[in-house]
Amino acid sequence: MFIPTPRVQVPSAAAKGEVFQVKALISHQMETGLRRDQQGNVIPRRIINKFACRYNDIVVFGVDLHEAMAANPYIEFYLRATESGRLEFIWEEDGGHTYALTHQLTVG
Fold first, then answer.
1. Distance CA 87, CA 68 (A)
2. Topology (CATH level 3) of domain 5-102
3. Most buried of 44, 51, 56, 80 (most Cβ within 10 A)?
């Protein structure tokens, strides 16, 4: 069974007020539920349907994803460094599975 692998690229330190780039990627097959296997059975839908980024427990970026999203969804966005703290990245999949990564950001 394929296990999704989340990855992020974000700086470990930033100056106060600096805008920095965040890149998030999860290796995921994104099965739409529209295909059939070799025996003709429908392959169940299994997609990443939500992504959120929390900065010190406050959601600062979020997106809902749908069937048309490509496999291995890549998301890029920008944040402003306001204070040192934890960045948490959460991907939610159909069926309730979640995948998460955390990253410590130091603001100087």
1. 28
2. Immunoglobulin-like (2.60.40)
3. 51
Would you kindly state where each structural domain of the chain is located, as residue ranges? 5-102
Residue 58's pLDDT is: 97
What are the DSSP calls for 3-62, one per residue?
A: --EEEEE--SEE-TT-EEEEEEEEE---B-S--B-TTSPBPPPB-EEEEEEEETTEEEEE
Instruction: Answer whether 0.85 is exceeded by the pTM.
Output: yes
Residues of the chain where predicted confidence (pLDDT) is lower than 70: 1
H or E element in which residue 107 lies? strand 98-107
Quick check: 24 and 63 in contact, CB under 8 A? no
